[in-house]
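Help! Submission page says 'invalid entity' but I think these are all valid:
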Amino acid sequence: MRASLKRLFRKIEEINGRYREPRIEMSLAVKVALQFLRFYLLFLVCLIAYKFILLLN
Amino acid sequence: MNVFSKLYYKLRKMWKAIQLYLVIAGPGIVVMVADNDAGGITTYAATGAKYGYHLIWFLLLLIPAAYYVQEMTVRLGAVTKRGLAEAIFDGFGATWGWYALIDLMLVNWLTLVTEFIGMTAALHIFGVPPWLTVTGVVLLMAIIVLNGRYWTWEKIALLFCALNLIYIPAAFMIHPSVSDIVKDGLIPNFPGGFNGQLFFFLMANIGTTIAPWMLFFQQSAVVDKGMQEKDIPWGKFDTLLGSALTVVVAIFIVIVTGTTLNGTDIESAGRAAEHLMQTDRYVGTFMAIGLFDAGLLGAICISLASSWAFGEIFGWAHSLNQNIKQAPWFYASYFFALITAGLVVLIPGAPLVLITLFVQVIAVTLLPAVLVFLILLLNDRHTMGDYCNSGWQNLIGGFIVATIVVLSSLYGISVMFPNLFV
């Protein structure tokens, strides 16, 4: 079990290393689009958390 | 004689084109027809029951929307020879990649649960217990995927796609008024005015027509099939045909429920089939068979989309052309998702309604991001070369993507806060 987990983490590290740098050219449009996505996802996460709190109450 | 020889030559040329298309056909049709999954059937059935034929014009608008989004995956897959998960990792780095992959796993697994809900509900009408449906489906899917050939899998999937057309004879059997369909359905209108409930139905129809798994599935299928750049025009045609087919089936479902259940609120396609059984036994039976087929087709494609994506990133062998010994992790992840999703449906008192709603919310956290990634990747001239998005494609695709992002987000939010638009 421990060996399997170790192998899995090694694999994840390898994947992270392989894709460390984004290959796509970071033009202004790409940067703006990715920044928009970050805000959008943050907004959704906040909304889901709010709904979760409402459900708990 | 000259006329006959010309005609013969033209027919021969056309037959060759059809033969060539039949070789390339598959991913586009399968993904688009599988899009009419159990959740989709429920949405269309509820739309018809609630608004009759009045929203048929809106469904027609979904043909170009679905086509423009999905054809981008054909080009990306044929040019890069890699699936969408790998393309996102490579293009945007590991952080965005993991987010897309994990979100895809979650939303796909939850959608798989909804497919099993649909299939068990459909066969329950014929007295088949849920445990038997789940076992039978898992066994059937094992037989389909374990043959070790993509080609065989695809042709079997196409057979199930053909069964999805069962709603067409069902619609003819209830003798709907063609003049009413044309008068009410083809002229854009908002029945009862543009209110919150109508807006919810419009959003639900968009949400069910374009789902995140479809993008991942079609691109991986294009790669697994071995499509090349030269095959792109046929791949596009395949996608266009699939888009039209999926909407045609949706329209016939709307006609069935719009004719027989007009003005009623139905909460699931299974319930619609039960109602129809009381009015016309054969139409109800067709509806139930169609629902089962839709769930099965959805399950076949969704579980594959996950396994392909995982295989691409973890570097496992991940092709249907490889057998279980050659690609053990690919098939293990496939069956793990399938069996666990099936088991959830068998748990007494499992929150199935909550899961069905939760799918819409989680899908919204993935779909806009993946669509934005897709547009950006298609604009990467370095990778895409001549197949890069043109200005027009960006304009049309961008508009469609922006509309889908806004409406699907509002749909997800309205599922969380049902009173927001009422």
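Support: the input was valid. A stray whitespace character was the problem, and the output above is from the cleaned input. Residues 364 and 389 of chain B are 25 Å apart (CA to CA).
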